[in-house]
Amino acid sequence: YPGAAQYVPRTEDLATVRAAAERCHGCDLYRDATQTVFGEGSATADTVLVGEQPGNDEDLDGHPFVGPAGHLLDRALAEIGVDRDTLYLTNAVKHFRFVERGKRRIHQQPRRTEIVACAPWLATELELIAPRLVICLGAIATQAVLGPKAKVTALRGQVVDGEHHRVGVTVHPAAVLRAEDRAQAYTAFVDDLRRLFAAG
Ligand code: SF4
């Protein structure tokens, strides 16, 4: 893949960067997806949350974390007293990757090559926002921010020092929805978030 770098404008203005991302052809995911789903929220956020990629609802809607996983995240944030509007929410990969099964579009994890191709957008978001804390939700976000060897199982609930910001790790809210014991997984997710916000 050629990657997104050639599509990233040289600007300090996040809105200009977001607009440019609408036309990104840095990898093949733009072909089947409906639209680019860029990050959203406060451009001066103290904390940035990074997920994996837009899901079915986000792809259709054009906004991050608006589907079932986003609702679960909203509930968890409300429970620990964090206002979503004070944050910036984005994804490691900005287009939805899926396979069609009948009328359904089934989420597919992005490939390493797609994560690498899309990395310049996330890097630019983090550079312009310059948050104190970056919270990675799930394996793909963790690898995109901390490198391909970083493991959620080893880092979950911890905050480590990154080059430009502190980095906290937990699971993706979609993993909570898929868990066998959803109540227990939700409690653990809320506990993680509480700890990360406090430690960051
Ligand atoms: Fe560009 Fe990222 Fe979309 Fe690929 S996934 S086309 S790199 S915005």
Automatic annotation (TrEMBL):
Gene3D superfamilies: Uracil-DNA glycosylase-like domain. Keywords: 4Fe-4S, DNA damage, DNA repair, Hydrolase, Iron, Iron-sulfur, Metal-binding. One of its GO terms (molecular function) is 4 iron, 4 sulfur cluster binding. InterPro entries: UDG_Type-4/5, Ura-DNA_glyco_family4, Uracil-DNA_glycosylase-like, Uracil-DNA_glycosylase-like_sf. The keyword Iron-sulfur applies. Residues 38-194 form the Uracil-DNA glycosylase-like domain. GO terms for biological process: DNA repair. The keyword Hydrolase applies. Belongs to the uracil-DNA glycosylase (UDG) superfamily. Type 4 (UDGa) family. This is Type-4 uracil-DNA glycosylase. It comes from Nocardia neocaledoniensis.
